[in-house]
Amino acid sequence: MGAMRIVRSVVIDCHIEDVFGYVADPLKDPTWRPTVLAVDQIAGNGPGPGARYEMLQRPSSWRPPRPTVCTCVDWDPPDRIAWRCEAAGDAIDVSYALEPAWTSTRLTCRQEHWLRAARILHPALKLAAARDVQHQLGALRRRLEQG
Predict the structure, then answer these.
(1) Whole-model pTM?
(2) How confident is the model at residue 109 (pLDDT cuts 50, 70, 90)?
(3) What is the number of other CB atoms lying within 10 angstroms of the CB of residue 2?
(4) Exposed, middle or buried, 100 (CB in 10 Å: 0-12/13-18/19+)?
(5) Peptide bond before 78: cis, by omega within 30 degrees of 0?
(6) Which of 7, 34, 98, 117 is 20 to 30 A away from residue 134, measured at CA?
(7) In the chain, where are the structural domains located?
(8) Which CATH class is domain 2-32+76-146?
(9) Residue 40 to residue 56: CA distance in whole angstroms
């Protein structure tokens, strides 16, 4: 099992509090993350420290959907939120750092993947995951800017 790191950013023409409120609520993930098919909160009372969610995700079109459990591990509104997501023996640490950019917000997504897949597959998996993150951030920007 090896680690794979991905970092991508986007500037969204919305105030930081609005972006944080949207990104911090996994129940909204299906609206901007096409790989997320369904989300249920299984612990906690709304978004925040210790909140846990079970997601049904389809990471690629050629694989069946799989349940993923995500736990909020860091919460500092409106600047930072982090998640630990686990599915089928794999783990992904995801953090979102937000900073104001005038009246807009720069959102930086950092992911560290801990995969069971053979290391030889990591370059292809990293390319696919990075492309997926970039598409997600673009979808989030469009969603928030359109209101």
Answers:
(1) 0.90
(2) very high
(3) 11
(4) middle
(5) yes
(6) 117
(7) 2-32+76-146
(8) alpha beta
(9) 9
